[in-house]
Amino acid sequence: MKKILKKVMATAMTVTILSTNLISMPVNVSASTTDRKIDFNVPAWSWKNPTKPYPKDTNSSVYFYLSSGSASVKVKVFGCTLKDTTKYNWNENLTLNKNGVSKKYVTCSIGTEYEIYNEVKEKGYGYAGIKMQTKGFTENHVVGAWSPDFSRESGHTYKVAN
Which of 4, 49, 63, 107 maximizes the CB count within 10 A of its CB? Predict the structure, then answer.
């Protein structure tokens, strides 16, 4: 009886140790966090996309940053689908404000790193795209970057777009 009890205890301890190690192992999750360059003339009265849509791999925010420009911009995050090998459907504006409420657009200023809440992945879309319009009355040339999947980097300060 003692031998059986020892074997059961040893097995239980082994299972506990192994399961603890498995739970604490890092999981490599693929995410589209590569910055996409923005170097674009943003129109004053119409919405334009500075880049094509890119794969959206997680339900994270979208990263957005403008390093230069003459005025703030309005930004929309769209859920997109691949139409064929080179064309996309810009299906649905899925921009959310900082409270998680659906919004037509958020406003982003020059020189601030933003995370833009959205529902792209949650609504079943495989691609995210952004469209921009200037807050001013004239065309605005902007330079910066965006990424479909947001990932915090050490030493950076981010603001939730609203």
Answer: 63
